Amino acid sequence: MMGWGDEERGLFLQGVRAALPLLLGVIPFALICGIASMEAGLPAWQAVGISLVIFAGASQLAVIHLFVIGAPAVVMVLTAFVINLRFVMYSASIAPHFRAVPGRWRLLVSYLLTDQAYALSLTRFHEKRGCRNPFAYTLGAGVTIFFVWQVFNALGILLGAGVPDSWGLDFGVPLTFMALLVPAVQDRPTLVAALVSGVTALVMSGFPYGLNIICAALLGIGAGLLLDTTGEEGAS
Description:
Order of helices and strands: HHHHHHHHHHHH
Largest sheet: none
Structural class: mainly alpha
Helix content: over 70%
Shape: globular
Number of helices: 12
Distance between the termini: 46 Å
């Protein structure tokens, strides 16, 4: 693959190892999505297809929820689109590191890009030692998360509604995002963005169709950008 040598394979394995701790949150999250698909009445092949096509837990759960309440197809598509808009920002922020990567491999990384893979890659790219092959590292993290997600999503589909509520698998969703959030909060703008988003999501939790998440993301980004811009102007 792209003439890989020992260095590239080593970085790929570093990406794999970096993703392993996050699987503690990914596994129950994937199980929840698989179980939710079956509880919604989807055929197993459709449940697997949703996981492969969307490959984004938050959007997957949102679409399943909208399907259950009988929302129009256009609402489901638009909701998934809006929720996944964050990946456009993710891609834009790390794109400069992939300029030397051929287009077909960039497409592969874009498909495998998740919240976890992005957070791990961004953290590594900003380290003092840097990353000589960002593609190999990001691919290692992305492939690991993709494989584990699909396996445990399928397991959740097989289990269906047979998993008792007493197992408490719901902890996987907040645990996953907490594991991503803490390393990403490195300065005041990101801290403010996280706080504004969290408060907004809680205050607007009664909004339908997951609009509280969309509003929380927009307000959090706006607050972070405002503080960042204000800080730059004050320093100049």
